[in-house]
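Handout, section B. The chain below has 403 residues.
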Amino acid sequence: MFQRQTELIEKIILGEDATIEFKREMPHRDSMADEITAFANAQGGTILIGIDDNKEIVGLELQELDKAEKTVVEICEDSIEPPVPIFTEKLRIDDKNILKIEVPRSLFVHKTPNGYFARQGSSKREMPTDQLARLLQSRSQARIITFDEQVIPNTHKETLRESYFRRFITEDATEDVIENLLLKRRLLVKERQEIRASVAGVLMCHDTPDDYLYNSFIQAVYYNGKVKDANYQIDAKDFRGTLDQQIIDAYTFVHKHNMVSARKEVGRIDQPQYSMRAVFEAIVNAVVHRDYSKGESKIRLFMFADRLELYSPGALANTLTVDDLPFRQATRNELLARLLSEITLEDDVGKKVKRRHFLERRGEGVGIILNESEELSGKTPLYELHNEELCLTIFAAESLQQV
């Protein structure tokens, strides 16, 4: 960040924001720890010591500069849990010494003696409980149980429907061993003396998961136009079954409205708007990677005359970025992924999407979405991150009859 000094000076002129913090002098150890963790728990950033809040470069004496650098390193090792790796650099600007501290976005969630902080705008804020819980889950700390394995209150063994959970245990399992098998699969979880259903258990083994996990369904809308306008709404459905059924229902919805154009030259040529194989991969990815701890939103699928938009609640897992999606894989819900990889697709769908199970776990999904969609429409699908929601836009192929 700010590799050239001219970039850094321009940033100082603009002032503090979500990526940069000014300190006139070395602050108290705990206060400095809070600033560092706030950046590490957010998107990373730069701290400049020797710059006043009014953007004036006041500088540090050489002895103070050395002491400040040593103290910052000690703070990262001794006052932050787990320790934060940083990069420090001594600089001279306008003949004055400043200390630049670069804090990368972390794989983990960090705590100081004062609590958990995150950068918001030009200041740090202590994280509220729900934000902290989402951050812990999204960064997958080894000591924190993943959300899809957590207990759902007010559930019990009978919450799971036998016709669904039988798919994940041995066919000949008798009643006296079923409970233990479901516990081993983490579809059931022991909470003190009680047996409860897990998040994955409800999502995969209950008729209406939304009864327990608010908004855990797919909403699909088809517009005969290019904007969200009720006057152009042709079809709308909410799919609330088990996750595998939601995937099939959403896939069928798109297939129903996937218009096919034709042209007769030497033989008939048919061209659909969308590759249904790409659509299937997109829906599976949205279901597997969504953040089920975010109950304020649902997976939303919108079809327009010229594009398909698919929204999945939750920021990208770990350090994954939008640019990394074609090359890297990071699973937010490992248990759900494992369960979906065990369910066999019915032949008619399986043949169309060229796979045997709902999830093959080979890391090919994004590539299929990008390549097959671009081959049809000539436009590369677009992944965008809006706050804590991932949006995928797949562009429709133009009608052959317009050529």
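Note. The longest strand covers residues 96-103. Compare this with the example in section A.
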